[in-house]
Amino acid sequence: EVQLVESGGGLVQPGGSLRLSCAASGFTFSSYGMNWVRQAPGKGLEWVSYISSSSSTIFYADSVKGRFTISRDNAKNSLYLQMNSLRAEDTAVYYCARDGGRFRGVIDPDYWGQGTLVTVSS
Amino acid sequence: QAVVTQEPSLTVSPGGTVTLTCGSSTGAVTSGHYPYWFQQKPGQAPRTLIYDTSNKHSWTPARFSGSLLGGKAALTLLGAQPEDEAEYYCLLSYSGAYVFGTGTKVTVL
After folding, report:
1. What is the dihedral of CA B9, B4, A100, A77, to 10 degrees?
2. Which comes out higher in pLDDT, residue A73 or B95?
3. Taking Cα atoms as reference points, which of B106, B5, B23, B44 lies closest to residue A39?
4. A66: alpha, beta or left, given left = phi > 0 and alpha = psi -120 to 50?
């Protein structure tokens, strides 16, 4: 059974940093790309970032480019999101989602984690 | 950035049929936008229902189907069940940019 468990969320001040993790199990992690998607309280979904299975291809949404860094450790079956220079508008539940990889150059989210809440506030 | 628009809310009777649509501010939605559909219930993570316009996952109930309709992506629910009450989001791809729709709240009443 595919399982994705996010952690690392919490309260952080504007301008601060936070590192999210996503622990994967139930599939060969090193064979799949991964995504981060976020959802502000009471709002819709927003795609944040994608990383390929080998980390050779990385994409970011314009809203986080230059502030967030996606990475992964295939030996630890883990995905990360380093978030710097955080703003109030980054407040959201952050989901990791496996990428099915069916299409070249297009994200393909299939399985989702339960999310971790990040609150940016003073 | 493109804006992807969905109906804010729709109501369907149990056993009835409802069609949700997903439009793009840049023009007609085509298969090249690789439309996806997700279901999200309160307090839960999203669940992927449809990928690449009309393909279903193994967990997608047969009563859900995806298509292109009148220049938009469409999700049709045929024979609505009480457990289908949820928020539904579409996702469109724009050459490396990925935009979710505004969401449709479906009430089964």
Report:
1. -90
2. A73
3. B44
4. left
Query: pLDDT tens across A36-72, in order?
Result: 999 999 999 999 999 999 999 999 999 999 999 999 9
Question: What pLDDT shows up at residue A105?
Answer: 83
Residue of A nearest to B87 (CA): A44
Nearest CA in chain B to A62: B97
Token output for B27: 């023009």
Chain B residue with CA closest to A116: the answer is B45
Report chain A residues whose CB lies below 8 A from the CB of B32: none
Q: How far is B24 from chain A (nearest CA, A)?
A: 16
pLDDT tens, position by position, B55-103: 999 999 999 999 999 999 999 999 999 999 999 999 999 998 999 999 9
Q: How far is A112 from chain B (nearest CA, A)?
A: 7
- Structural Rg of chain A based on CA atoms: 14
Kindly determine whether residue A45 and residue B36, on different chains, have CB atoms separated by under 8 Å: no
Question: How does DSSP assign B7-65, residue by residue?
Answer: -SEEEE-TT-EEEEEEEETTB---GGG--EEEEE-TTS--EEEEETTTEE-TTS-TTEE
Distance from CA of A17 to the nearest CA of B (A): 24
